[in-house]
Amino acid sequence: MHAVTAEPDTARLLEIPVGAALFAIDRLTCLADGRPVDAETLRVRADRFALQALVHRGPVPPRT
Length: 64
Fold this sequence. Notes:
Layout: E1 2-5, H1 8-14, E2 21-30, E3 36-45
Antiparallel strand pairs: 1-2, 2-3
């Protein structure tokens, strides 16, 4: 996920001003064997999206 500004076509579709802040999400879904099956590029209005994270503090578990 990264920040971008709205280009004219995207701004029109999302009903926001050109240059408004957006979240850009580029996602690639792969099968268990690594073959890609779906690629998406999403643009989300910054005023309609919230990201929440939970951070556990303490010892780092061993990698498996």
